[in-house]
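Deviation from plan, reported transparently: heme C complex.
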Amino acid sequence: MSSKPNNTKSKGKTGNDREPGVGKAPVSVGVFVVTILLAYWAMMELNTRAGGFSRYVYGPYESYAVVESVQPGSGDDPIKRGADIYRNICSPCHQASGMGAPGQFPPLAGSDWVNVEGPNRMLRIVLNGLGGPIEVNGETWNAVMPGFGDVIVSDEDLAAVISYVRNSWTNEASICTPEEAAAVRAESGDRGRAWTSTELLALPLEVQ
Ligand code: HEC
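Because the crystal trials were delayed, the predicted structure below was used instead.
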């Protein structure tokens, strides 16, 4: 602290007397240009090399090869394969949670149509569709489900999606084999119209 009185302030400034100002000094053009160039270079670097990232590879997958190996309908594990088919075909209505949608699509999770001894009735529902009133867990639904026999053309895939539903969420039921799927398809594949719940209830639970 200077002991000089204020009125001596104008006495003449030397370089040492200058106080730092705020927001007055212009940014040098050089710094400005270098910053822009750096940002541009960083963008190009990310664009071309992406730092090892790919927009097709994320989550738990390490490479594009791994992502390809879990595409729908691939892989040996029928439950995993069924999960892909379920996601593509059934989940728009019955939801990924298997809970369906109130008043529109009945639940598959905990359903008394799914948790039964054999997949005979469920195979027919998926192959030919279902219409008219149906009671699911004590609640009545009355809508239309289209058949998917022409969409799920392989018996392995048909068995896989049934097995997945019968063993997901809280469901616990037997695996559906491709042989069972083939037998039911041979019998009712070209039936040409949807089932009613009354017709299905007259059929045995297990594939004969
Ligand atoms: C376009 C919507 C839609 C799609 C897609 C769909 N369902 Fe359904 N599903 C329904 C409707 C609606 C009903 C009830 C039909 C009725 O009221 O008669 C139903 C009923 C069922 C039932 C019997 C009732 C129950 O809740 O357990 C099963 C089992 C079933 N669906 C399984 C499947 C499977 C497996 C798939 C995929 C392969 C599938 N559904 C795809 C709409 C759909």
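Residues 7-12 have pLDDT under 50 and may be disordered. We consider this an acceptable substitute for the interim report.
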